[in-house]
Specification:
The complex is a heterotrimer. Chain A is α/β, with parallel strands linked by helices. Chain A contains 19 helices and 19 strands. Chain B is of the alpha/beta class. A five-stranded mixed β-sheet of chain B has the order 2-1-3-4-5, covered by helices on one side. Chain B has a five-stranded mixed β-sheet with strand order 13-12-16-14-15. In chain B, strand 3 and strand 4 form a beta hairpin. Classes of the chains: A alpha/beta, B alpha/beta, C alpha+beta. Chains in contact: A-B, A-C, B-C. The interface between B and C is large, with 51 and 38 residues.
Chain lengths: 574, 649, 154
């Protein structure tokens, strides 16, 4: 039912049952919010969205009140504006004045509010709480001093990621968000997915910045700098720099990285193709033996940590194939160093990922061979954007350059790794081929391309039909795993990505207010799949060359030694 | 279906009594009841007030001593631990009833006085200096020249409905409760009324919530009654965490069955089958009494399945609140019961439609529920006749502070505040000038003497910018500094705020800081700190307005009340603190200026060593002196001086 | 932790509804909530430890270090405040060197500030191991604390 209410002396249309806030937004009336999150029930904590309703004594939070047909609302009366301003001033009275030094400078919701509300002096004096910065985690840094206690991280961690590493602790002016027993994050069950970083309105949660390490290496004449970047950073980086989708963004990233000083540049999708070949082989072997099914993907390091902590019973089902980042890392320090006669110890391998958990993955002990780490440093998309700006590179003037051989050839299969369902789609293309010797008639699997968090699909392999599921968001993954555990559902392959939507929505991606950003990133990846000529991993000529030249065949002794890994249950405070 | 099997002959008898009307009692029943309700005693009866306040005053030792005395002398006396009659300054109170005589109440019977008191009373002498009065009872011979309890200044103007039995009955005896007509109202309810009729009755009685909001109880019940659901809850809010408020505790300690009966009727009215008493953990005595009362009520079948064959099921569990002031707020309380942090939630939905586990839930406080049996028993009209229009019934107050007779009082609505403070509680201590009263808990307001003629009604108290609150009254005389009090309240709110919404969390904290800066000397008096002080003071009112306007729950909305009310009525005290740096009550120690008495100073130099601001100068073995401009008023010198040579002004 | 396991068995339902009663019973048993207890309870109730911890830090009642041999509770209600409870509290903190919720190093004393005991007629009031001391003065306070300290020495 639609009815008319009066807002700021003008009529607007409102729908029965919706909140005041939603009616206002639909009609183009902007009311600021801090604690509000799309798709979550409102908590009414920040009080920024208050409006004046005629006949009500106090101001009303528009996020948690339903519109009613009698309402006469004023959204920007002097009383409302004064209240909003005071609330922000109260927050600022306990906020460090270090915007210039802050990670989120220029992209901070609090800063923007202060600007919009025209706050020009510190009107409310006060003591600031003393807090310690938590830098214990290899991926996430928490600075409670900058926390405005909106609770978004708490909710995303519990509701969307089923981790609940964080909660409000203590009370009143001592209220602080912390993990269990107020332990540093590294001792907690944090899976490093970085979704909290994405939702944090201020600089209270950030990734661990590793600029310093990079610039040291860049200026070390002994080091050979090698970079790899994930398939899903190109689309989001384009957003960050306002590039049109029509430009060869990979080529530009290659050029930019070389300008920064990297000697060799690869895209991780090459390794994604290798990952697919290994996984397809592993699956067929498991299927043949009839054990280890469902096979669960292990590309997502946040999911892997989750499994090691929360569902160790699922570890035997994880594929042992390393993630594309780690495969690239290994190949760089083995195959390429052999081929080009470079001492692996002289290689400084940097990986650029849409992900904070990859920083953790890069540090795993399993990912080190003979004291040499596969990957030396992992940067997020955000850090790369900064690195580009730091080096004064004008993206618009760059001419696209190809990636370095012998890992320059890619297929669009590898590209699809950036989106939930993409690994599965690529994997099924190759499994079908390996099983039947023929290519799939239609490479696209529309069921895996819905925007739902749980996407099921079936594929006929000869006489048998395999059933697969791709799931993103740990809360949904937990549901799927429970169903498998309780034998309510049977799947042959499960793809799990911790971030809702996949790596395009990863914790290392640019923080944007654009609600359609993630959908656009996904669409961009699908378009690449449409455009690309080579659509399957097994058709990638350079991958074929890799096997001929170095690994012989998927699941060969050598590839198991180099490209496969192990998992162990992890004891943390759950 | 489980059938209640009554264990003892007494219990069978009690159930008989409960079912019958008074006129139907046989002679032998009546005579047995007389003993049960202590209208008649066959042997001496001694009651020791054992409420928390009494225990603090030493009633445990008194009780032990009385038992010992009785044993040593083979007294064959019945010794009972009772609740308190509410005279705090008289604790420990002991009352004694000799066979055939009225009951006498004695004050301040500490352990050491037990012997002589009992010696006297058992030899028919009344120690007048300890005697409060005798309990009126036509059936007994009274004592001459002894006031009746209801004639004493403290009791004369009171109208006791919910406190009727506290301090007088044995709170652990369901027998006495039933003998005095207890559970009759409940039996009447389930036998003769529909749930809707009960809601009507309570609505017609004009009963309004006693926890401060004054929302009509019957109206609230009806919302829950009309919301259909497979499960409804009745919660009794016994968290009572306003400092200085102990009304509910007195009821639970003194007359626990009354609360149970009120809850049972309420549950029937809203068709709830589960009752929860959410009680403060520190109320050990109340918890003990209620646990006992609930188990006894279950034993005789007043609680449980198919109560008295009516088909109505209701049981009560006790849940100890782990301690958070904000859990007095309904949604916070529900969160706490659900095993969550006690953070309030946005309303609507209101608990009456969606509360505990999203089921219709009625939350009433102890006093509200304790009024119910009388309303059903004596009828809504009777209740409505007490008090004044729109404000029916009585209100219990706990009055303390600078007052001659602190304690618990129950008065009808409409009485003037002056009567309460001066006529009942005796006004300020001898020779002191009265300043005002603080009502409504830490988020309440200060009412100056000039407004004390305001009648006690929800509306008139609100009109003068205050609120009745749950019933704590703090009296203040000239020795109390208004700013010190306000600072205390603000600090309390800052610590008790749940921290969820910004205006309350940050606002209470900043206001506390501003008040601290006013009641302290600036550490270095340059233009900047003075400016900050002024800025702060100017912010007080605008901050308070935003907190009231935008906070999520009642706690934040009312937190600035103490500041706003005192700015209105005691502005001159603020100005003195700010401009003259002077505290007229001499309470703000940090505004004091110290000086050294040259006659007494030995020149030991200890004070100069202790002084953190190097404000004390002198030569050893000669008198020292304080440089007033440098003194920050910390008082360390005052405390350290071994010769009492340091004074302050 | 055996005691805790037995205690958990007493609860008919290990649901979140019972979380607070379980924590209360645990604290009654051990005197405080240890990291081990919190882990065990959250596991038993299938709740994240962060939630159990977050909840227990919200309420006044729960403490995370063992109480002292003598547990001092100081009433800081309004009337007690008017009667200098704030100063007495500072005095106690000075003498014992501990703050609210803390235990002295020798394990002898622990301190808890209550918002009101409800004995306002007899303010200011403190209690030590359940024994009340009312109408306190500075001298009385000092001698009471000394008595307890000496009690230990003997």
């Amino acid at each position: 039912m639609v009815f008319t209410i009066e807002v700021n002396n003008r009529p607007i249309q409102a729908r029965k049952g919706e909140t005041i806030l939603s009616a206002l937004r639909r009609n183009g009336i902007q009311v600021p919010t801090l604690c509000n999150m799309k798709d979550y029930t409102p908590t009414g904590a920040c009080r920024m969205c208050v409006v004046e309703i005629e006949g009500r004594e106090n101001l009303t939070p528009s996020c948690s009140f339903q519109v009613e047909d009698w309402m006469k609302i004023n959204t920007h009366s002097p009383r409302v504006l004064a209240a909003r301003k005071t609330i922000v001033e109260l927050l600022l009275s306990n906020h460090p004045d270090d915007c210039l030094y802050c990670e989120r400078n220029g992209n901070c919701e609090l800063q923007l509010l202060a600007e919009n509300l025209n706050i020009r002096e510190r009107r409310i004096p006060g003591k600031k709480s003393a807090y310690k910065n938590d830098k214990s985690s290899p991926a996430i840094v928490r600075d409670p001093a900058k926390c405005i206690l909106c609770g978004r991280c708490v909710r995303v961690c519990e509701d969307s990621q089923a981790v609940a590493c964080l909660d409000f602790t203590h009370r009143g002016s001592e209220l602080i968000i912390a993990s269990a027993m107020s332990k540093p994050i590294n001792f907690s069950n944090c899976i490093n997915c970085g979704q909290c970083v994405i939702v944090c309105p201020t600089g209270a949660l950030t990734e661990k910045i590793q600029f310093e390490e990079i610039s040291n290496a860049l200026h070390d004449p002994e080091k050979i700098l090698v970079a790899q970047y994930s398939p899903s950073i190109s689309v989001s980086l384009a957003e960050e720099f306002g590039l049109k989708g029509t430009r060869d963004i990979n080529g530009i990233i290659n050029a930019a990285l070389r300008k920064i000083g990297f000697n060799k540049v690869y895209e991780s999708s090459f390794a994604a193709d290798v990952n697919i070949l290994e996984m397809a082989e592993e699956f067929l072997k498991r299927q043949e033996k009839g054990e280890g099914l469902p096979m669960i993907t292990g590309d997502c390091p946040a999911w892997v940590k989750y499994a090691e902590q929360h569902t160790p019973d699922m570890l035997p089902f994880l594929t042992s194939v390393k993630s594309p980042q780690q495969i690239t890392g290994t190949l760089i320090k083995t195959w390429i160093s052999e081929k080009e006669k470079i001492n692996p110890a002289a290689i400084y391998s940097v990986s650029i990922m849409p992900c904070t958990a990859k920083k953790f993955e890069g540090q795993r002990v399993e990912m080190t061979r003979k004291g040499i780490s596969d990957i030396d440093t992992v940067l997020t998309t955000r850090e790369l954007a900064r690195l580009i700006r730091l080096h004064g590179i004008d993206i618009d003037l760059l001419e696209p350059e190809p990636s370095d051989d012998p890992m320059g050839g890619i297929s669009s299969s590898g590209k699809l790794f950036g989106v939930s369902g993409g690994v599965m789609e690529s994997l099924l293309r190759t499994i079908y081929y390996k099983h039947s010797g023929n290519e799939l008639d239609e490479t696209k699997l529309p069921k895996l391309r819905s925007f739902k968090p749980i996407r099921e699909a079936q594929l006929k392999l000869g006489n048998t039909e395999i059933s697969v599921v791709a799931v993103s968001g740990m809360n949904h993954a937990v549901k799927v795993l429970d169903e498998v555990r309780n034998k309510k559902k049977h799947y042959d392959i499960i793809e799990i990505m911790a971030c809702p939507g996949g790596c395009v929505a990863g914790g290392g991606q640019p923080i944007t207010k654009d609600e359609n950003a993630i959908k656009n990133r996904i669409k961009a990846l699908y378009e690449i799949d449409n455009r690309e000529h080579i659509k399957t991993a097994h058709k990638n000529p350079q991958v074929i060359a890799l096997y001929e030249d170095f690994l012989s065949e998927p699941m060969s002794k050598k590839s198991i030694e180099l490209l496969h890994t192990t998992f162990t249950p992890r004891e943390v405070i759950l | 279906m489980e059938e209640i099997i009554l264990n003892s002959e007494t219990d069978v008898f009690l159930m008989q009594v409960v079912h019958l009307d008074k006129v139907e009692y046989t002679h032998s029943m009546e005579s047995r009841l007389e003993y049960l309700r202590h209208d008649k005693v066959g042997r001496p009866l001694i009651l020791v007030s054992m409420g928390t306040a009494s225990q603090v005053a030493g009633s445990d030792a008194t009780y032990a001593k009385i038992c010992q005395y009785s044993e040593e002398r083979n007294l064959d006396a019945e010794i009972i631990q009772s609740g308190s009659i509410g005279m705090s300054q008289a604790e420990p109170v002991v009352s004694i009833q000799m066979p055939g005589r009225t009951r006498l109440f004695f004050s301040n019977i500490t352990e050491d006085r037990v012997g002589s008191l009992l010696d006297d009373v058992f030899h028919n002498t009344i120690p007048a200096e300890f005697c409060i009065g005798q309990l009126r009872n036509d059936k007994h011979e009274g004592y001459r020249d002894t006031l009746f309890l209801d004639e004493t200044g403290f009791m004369k103007l009171q109208k006791r409905v919910v406190l009727k039995n506290t301090g007088i009955v044995n709170p652990e005896s369901i027998e006495e409760y039933i003998a005095r007509g207890g559970f009759k109202a409940f039996v009447k309810t389930i036998k003769h009324y529909s749930s809707e009729e009960i809601c009507d009755m309570v609505e017609n009685s004009g009963l309004r919530g006693r926890s401060g909001s004054g929302y009509p109880t019957g109206k609230k019940w009806k919302i829950a009654y009309h919301t259909s659901s497979d499960q409804k809850y009745l919660i009794c809010n016994a968290e009572e965490s306003d400092p200085g408020a102990f009304m509910d505790r007195a009821i639970m300690e003194g007359d626990p069955f009354l609360l149970l009966e009120g809850m049972a009727i309420a549950a029937y009215g809203i068709t709830a089958t589960k009752g929860i008493i959410y009680i403060r953990t520190e109320y050990y005595q109340s918890i003990k009494r209620l646990e006992h009362a609930i188990s006894r009520a279950r034993e005789i079948g007043i609680l449980g399945h198919n109560i008295l064959g009516s088909g109505f099921n209701f049981d009560i569990i006790l849940r100890k609140g782990p301690g958070a002031f904000v859990c007095g707020e309904e949604t916070a309380l529900i969160n706490s019961l659900e095993g969550k942090r006690g953070m309030p939630q946005s309303k609507p939905p209101y608990p009456a439609t969606s509360g505990l586990h999203r089921k219709p839930t009625i939350i009433n406080n102890v006093e509200t529920l304790s009024n119910i049996p009388a309303i059903v028993g004596k009828g809504p009209d009777w209740f409505n006749s007490i008090g004044v229009e729109n404000n029916a019934g009585t209100k219990v107050f706990a009055i303390s502070g600078n007052i001659r007779f602190p304690g618990l009082i129950e008065v009808p609505f409409g009485m003037s505040l002056r009567s309460i403070v001066f006529d009942i509680a005796g006004g300020p201590p001898e020779g002191k000038k009265f300043k005002g009263i603080h009502m409504g808990g830490p988020a309440g307001s200060v009412i100056p003497v000039s407004l004390l003629d305001t009648p006690l009604t929800f509306e008139s108290i609100k009109e003068i910018g205050s609120g009745i609150g749950s019933g704590g009254i703090i009296a203040m005389d000239e020795d109390t500094c208004i700013l010190d009090m306000v600072k205390y309240f603000m600090d309390f709110m800052q610590r008790q705020s749940c921290g969820k919404c910004i205006p309350c969390r940050e606002g209470t904290r900043r206001m506390t800081e501003i008040l601290e800066s006013i009641t302290r000397k600036p550490v270095n008096d340059n233009g900047h700190t003075t400016l900050e002080r002024f800025k702060g003071v100017m912010q007080l009112e605008s901050l308070a307005a935003v907190m009231k306007d935008t906070s999520l729950c009642g706690l934040g909305q009312s937190a600035p009340n103490p500041v706003l009310s005192t700015l209105r009525h005691f502005r001159e005290e603020y100005e003195e603190h700010i401009f003259d740096r002077k505290c007229r009550s001499n309470r703000c120690t940090e505004l004091r200026t110290y000086f050294i008495d040259v006659e007494l100073c030995t020149g030991c130099s200890l004070c100069a060593k202790k002084c953190p601001s190097d404000a004390i100068f002198g030569t050893p073995r000669h008198p020292y002196f304080v440089v007033e401009e440098k003194c920050i008023g910390c008082g360390l010198c005052y405390e350290s001086c071994k010769f009492s040579a340091i004074h302050y002004k | 932790m055996e005691k805790l396991d037995n205690l958990l068995k007493k609860f008919p339902e290990l649901s979140r509804d019972n979380l607070i009663p379980i924590l209360q019973a645990t604290q009654d048993e051990y005197g405080y909530l240890s990291e081990e207890s919190i882990k065990r309870i959250s596991l038993a109730l299938k709740l994240p430890a962060s939630k159990v911890y977050g909840l227990s830090t919200f309420y006044n009642q729960f403490r995370f270090s063992p109480p002292g041999k003598f547990h001092i509770r100081v009433c800081h209600g309004t009337t007690c405040h008017m009667n200098n409870a704030g100063l007495f509290l500072k005095e106690i903190q000075k003498i014992l060197g501990i703050g609210d919720g803390e235990t002295s190093r020798d394990g002898l004393f622990s301190l808890e500030v209550l918002s009101c005991i409800g004995a306002c007629g007899q303010a200011p009031v403190i209690s030590i191991n359940g024994k009340f001391y009312d109408r306190l003065t500075k001298e009385k306070l000092k001698s009471v604390l000394l008595t307890y300290r000496n009690m230990e020495a003997v």
